């Protein structure tokens, strides 16, 4: 597989060079393209439009892995009756995700130290990207426990690579353009979700004749990840950085203690983070297990689930703009409370739909629940990040966002284990009732989060409004240390 990865990257270089053809007469569409190229070039210190394009394409690449492998294929592959079946399969899935995310959370300070003090980020990004691609491509034909280990390695590496990828924003963008380039990356990432979803739903069945095509998804994800990740390594150039010393680990390893002490001095911040731990538990768990619920509990085909999930992705994109307007008008606290209430309603409807699997009524309820949950997913991403910014003093923003990310990862560990254990213990006796109980526990944790953040005021320390974080500090991605 390593040879395939290298070969695809080499082919990408050749294709890129061959794409440069002879000069042609300038037309109006070309003038428009030149204007777009100039705007892209203005985002980066290099003045080259290909730099932000190459950077944003990596967002497309890693979203392919997140959607195709983590959220879609792995759980369905494990729970196949010819492999582990429902109960054991869900338990192994939960253990694989909890171990990989938990380990990543523990070593994030070290990885962050390497990112900030090691000078160059791209070699580390290449290492962890390769360590995501190769293991994930090998999952399909392997024995099930070997596949679970390969997935854990790939998911850990995926999470680790994001730290270095996010950090490269500083070198590929001008300070005043970081928000725009970050938004471009997010948009391109959504395009990755839609593109790979269409390939799974229509491309794989047409090529292989296999309606599920689960094993093919792992290979498809690896190839797409390789192709769209390659440009960042071929195009982006980093300035020479500082040398890294092992002694630099020490302050970062002790950073969590100082960060917590600083957080306690900010009114409402610790309570907000505690609330985020509980509602993120439900959000992260649903994202991972939804494919198994749809295929194994509701009786949908994988293709039907992908079609539904693509619809929900579009709903999330559109709804995020609406939630954003509500945040601007009513503030992040009220908006986030509305989002969590809508999620609770959606999860209740989803639990009811499990009482009528395989029927038109049950499927309609499941799709309705998914639409509400998809809308809320966009709302959570918009509102709680702004809430965090409102609560954080400007000089501590990077530091506190590291804590914010660690809380998200910690909730994923606990939520996955709790959900998986419930399914493992009860699914053989209660069938879909086990899924309904597991979903009800998620509603419970979400309501706990709701109650915790309800009294928190979304005031701005010192009266200064901060529009965006200084770096691309997205949820669950930032290392636990301040960025400079």
The largest sheet, given as strand count, sense and whether it forms a barrel, is: none
How many domains? 2
What is the CATH superfamily label of the largest domain? Answer: MFS general substrate transporter like domains
Q: Which value, in Å, is the CA radius of gyration?
A: 22 Å
| CATH classification, class level of the largest domain | Mainly Alpha
Which H/E pattern describes the elements?
HHHHHHHHHHHHHHHHH
The separation of the N and C termini measures 38 Å
**Strand segment count:** 0
Give the overall pLDDT as a whole number: 77
- Helix/strand-derived class? mainly alpha
Number of helices: 17
Indicate the percent of residues in helices.
over 70%
**Which residues sit in consecutive blocks of at least 5 with pLDDT less than 50?**
1-32, 461-484
CATH architecture verdict of the largest domain = Up-down Bundle
Shape: globular
Q: What share of residues are in beta strands?
A: under 5%
* CATH fold description of the largest domain: Growth Hormone, Chain: A
Outline the structure in words:
There is one protein chain. The chain contains 17 helices and no strands. The longest helix is centred in the last third of the chain and has 34 residues, at 397-430. Helices cover 77% and strands 0% of the residues. The protein has 2 domains: 49-237, Growth Hormone, Chain: A; 254-458 and 470-484, MFS general substrate transporter like domains (Growth Hormone, Chain: A), CATH 1.20.1250.20. By secondary structure, the protein is mainly alpha-helical. It is globular and about 60 Å long. The protein has helices spanning 2-18, 28-41, 50-78, 86-117, 122-137, 144-167, 169-172, 178-208, 214-235, 249-253, 255-264, 269-297, 302-330, 332-353, 360-391, 397-430, 432-453.
């Amino acid at each position: 597989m390593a040879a395939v990865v290298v070969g695809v990257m080499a082919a990408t270089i050749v294709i890129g060079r061959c794409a440069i053809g002879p000069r042609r007469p300038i037309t109006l569409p070309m003038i428009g393209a030149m204007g777009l190229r100039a705007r892209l070039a203005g985002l980066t210190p290099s003045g080259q439009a290909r730099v932000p394009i190459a950077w944003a394409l990596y967002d497309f690449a890693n979203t392919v892995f997140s959607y195709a492998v983590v959220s879609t294929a792995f759980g369905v592959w494990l729970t196949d009756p010819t492999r582990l079946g429902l109960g054991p399969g869900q338990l192994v899935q939960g253990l694989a995700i909890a171990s990989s995310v938990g380990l990543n959370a523990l070593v994030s300070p070290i990885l962050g130290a390497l990112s900030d003090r090691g000078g160059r980020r791209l070699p580390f990004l290449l290492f962890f990207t390769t360590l995501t691609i190769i293991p994930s491509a090998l999952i399909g034909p392997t024995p099930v426990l070997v596949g679970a280990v390969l997935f854990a390695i790939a998911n850990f590496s995926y999470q680790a690579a994001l730290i270095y990828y996010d950090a490269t924003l500083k070198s590929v963008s001008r300070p005043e353009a970081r928000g725009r380039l970050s938004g471009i990356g997010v948009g391109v990432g959504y395009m990755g979700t839609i593109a790979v979803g269409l390939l799974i739903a229509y491309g794989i069945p047409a090529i292989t004749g296999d309606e599920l095509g689960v094993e093919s998804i792992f290979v498809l994800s690896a190839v797409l990840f390789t192709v769209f990740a390659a440009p960042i390594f071929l195009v982006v150039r980093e300035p020479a950085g500082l040398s890294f010393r092992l002694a630099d680990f020490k302050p970062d390893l002790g950073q969590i203690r100082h960060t917590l002490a600083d957080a306690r001095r900010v009114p409402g911040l610790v309570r907000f983070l505690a609330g985020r731990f509980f509602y993120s538990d439900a959000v992260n768990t649903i994202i991972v297990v939804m494919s198994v619920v749809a295929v194994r509990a509701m009786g949908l085909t994988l293709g039907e689930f992908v079609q539904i999930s693509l619809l929900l992705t579009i709903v999330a994109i559109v709804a995020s703009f609406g939630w954003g307007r509500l945040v601007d008008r009513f503030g992040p606290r009220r908006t986030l409370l509305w989002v969590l209430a809508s999620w609770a309603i959606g999860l209740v409807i989803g639990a009811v739909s499990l009482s009528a699997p395989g029927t038109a009524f049950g499927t309609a309820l499941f799709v309705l629940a998914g639409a509400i949950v998809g809308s809320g997913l966009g709302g959570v991403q918009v509102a709680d990040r702004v809430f965090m910014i409102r609560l954080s003093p400007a000089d501590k923003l990077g530091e506190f966002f590291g804590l914010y990310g660690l809380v998200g990862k910690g909730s994923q560990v606990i939520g996955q284990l709790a959900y998986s254990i419930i399914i493992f213990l009860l699914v053989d006796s209660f069938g879909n009732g086990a899924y309904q109980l597991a979903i009800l526990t998620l509603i419970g944790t979400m309501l706990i989060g709701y109650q915790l953040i309800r009294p928190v005021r979304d005031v701005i320390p010192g009266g200064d409004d901060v529009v965006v974080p200084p770096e691309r500090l997205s949820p669950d991605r930032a290392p636990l240390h301040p960025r400079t």
